Amino acid sequence: MTPDGPRWLDFEDTWHGPVAWDVACLAMRSPESLRGYPDPPDEDLLAAYSRLRRLFAACWQFVVARRFPERLAGAREAVDEYFRLS
What we know:
86 residues; mainly alpha; 58% helix
């Protein structure tokens, strides 16, 4: 609980790894958050990790689509978008 109400923490990406991965995931959701981050990784490294995160997200949609076949079209669109942005 926070003063503004409940907040959900998703520990899916919680692991011991490069700080650049965490910062890239944060920046993808909230680019302005980098302004308050002390000593962020350089832009090229963040771009590489952001690209990797988008690939991970697209692949994960296929895992979800195995259980929920109606989501297969969305998974295919995510892969198309990944390659369009890459």
